[in-house]
Specification:
Layout lengths: L3 H6 L5 E3 L3 E5 L2 E2 L14 E3 L6 E5 L8 E8 L4 E3 L2 E3 L10 E8 L4 E3 L2 E3 L11 E7 L4 E4 L2 E3 L7 E7 L2 E4 L2 E3 L10 E5 L8 E4 L2 E3 L3 E5 L3 E3 L1 E4 L2 E5 L1 E6 L9 E8 L2 E5 L6 E9 L12 E8 L2 E5 L9 E6 L10 E7 L21 E2 L4 E3 L3
Parallel strand pairs: 1-4, 2-5, 4-7, 5-8, 6-9, 7-10, 8-11, 9-12, 10-13, 11-14, 12-15, 13-16, 14-17, 15-18, 16-19, 17-20, 18-21, 19-23, 20-24, 21-25, 22-26, 23-26, 24-27, 25-28, 26-29, 27-30, 28-31, 29-32, 32-34
Antiparallel strand pairs: 3-6, 31-33
């Protein structure tokens, strides 16, 4: 059965009901002028259930482009009760294949699964398996991302720019020894609007939660389970040619974070405010992390040989001739539990070649 004619003929206010079976689509590329079927504003795609309605990416002329199986632009778009199979390509292809990607306000993705998404570090092609982007009041709920091939090494599995991510699950594969793929479980970058993330589970990611672009204010990240991860919460507000990367007035409370010691240089929380060497005249004053609390979380590590945790919170410069003012303030750790122990000696410091700017004041309870 062919899905594309239904999308191409849909008008605002229409509902596309997909019965049980396999629906084939050529997908749509993510460029300014898309090639392929683009879901219009205020259109709903409703399947018969994740175990009944399957949407399969079937394009043959991929041409190393960056593809999205279900792509919508504009507000009020809804996708629900389907399974999307991206059908990852051979590892030497430099592209990405995303699952469901909706742009605009008031978009929703519910009760849906994305299988076999693909992203390539070599091609700089980050795959967003499920995402509501560039909008507010969006919802990703009761979704699953799975079936990721170990060669698919640049994945941000689930996220919104503004809205809610809830009751969803992300399963990364067992990584090959010595490999550290860019696997991010939840990636909420923000457009200045509030984001709530709760009751999700992420297994096997390099970073359970990851932020490296956008301006997030009022993030409420609570009651999530991030397990077998390298970094629990990773906030990289680096100056790499893009200013105004920030997070403020946000809470990470009552989460269960279990780190896999076999990854190597693990850390439950990273807040890194950095000017990179290839911006020798950069000043990252516009990039900051302010007023962030960590309350009631469990931070634990399993697997040898790393048994004692250390936070990694620093504001720093990494090249001569670079200035970096302190962009980190108001960070607090209260009533958290550390079954594997916690080494607080390096709070606010990190060994680099040049002067390190302390991230103090930082408040924490050492127990």
């Amino acid at each position: 059965m062919l899905l594309d004619p239904l999308i191409q003929s849909a008008k605002s206010g229409d509902t596309i009901n997909l019965g049980p079976g396999v629906w084939y689509t050529d997908g749509c590329d993510g460029y300014a002028t898309p090639t392929g079927p683009l879901i219009p504003p205020n259109v709903k795609i409703v399947g018969a259930g994740q175990n009944k309605t399957f949407i399969r990416f079937n394009r043959k002329d991929l041409q190393n482009r960056q593809w999205i199986v279900l792509y919508g632009r504009g507000g009020g778009i809804s996708v629900s009760d389907v399974t999307v199979d991206c059908g990852f390509p051979p590892a030497n292809w430099i592209l990405k294949i995303c699952g469901i990607y909706l742009e605009g306000d008031n978009n929703t993705i519910q009760r849906s699964t994305v299988l076999r998404p693909y992203g390539s570090i070599a091609g700089g092609a980050e795959c967003f398996a499920i995402k509501c982007a560039f909008g507010k009041n969006c919802l990703v709920d009761s979704c699953t991302v799975a079936g990721i091939d170990p060669n698919s090494d640049y994945i941000s599995a689930v996220g919104v720019h503004g809205g809610v991510v809830s009751r969803s699950a992300v399963f990364f594969p067992i990584r090959a020894s010595g490999k550290y793929p860019y696997w991010h479980g939840i990636n909420c970058e923000g457009v200045g609007s509030a984001v709530e993330v709760y009751d999700n589970i992420v297994i096997g990611a390099k970073a359970g939660y990851y932020l490296d672009t956008g301006a997030v204010t009022g993030l409420n990240f609570h009651h999530n389970t991030l397990t077998d991860v390298l970094y629990g919460i990773s906030i990289n507000i680096q100056y790499v040619g893009v200013a105004n990367r920030s997070i403020a007035n946000s809470k990470f409370n009552y989460n269960n974070i279990v780190l896999d010691g076999s990854w190597g240089d693990i850390s439950p929380v990273i807040i890194d405010h950095t000017v990179q060497p290839y911006n020798p005249n950069g000043v990252c004053n516009g990039n900051f992390a302010q007023n962030i609390s960590f309350v009631g979380n469990t931070f634990e590590v399993v697997g040898a040989p790393y048994k004692t945790l250390q936070m990694n919170i620093a504001s720093q410069a990494t090249s001569s001739g670079v200035s970096a003012t302190n962009g980190i303030s108001g960070i607090s750790f209260v009533d958290n539990v550390y079954p594997s122990g916690m080494d607080w000696r390096n709070m606010g410091n990190k060994a680099v070649d040049l002067k390190v700017y302390n991230a103090l004041p930082i408040n924490w309870n050492p127990l």
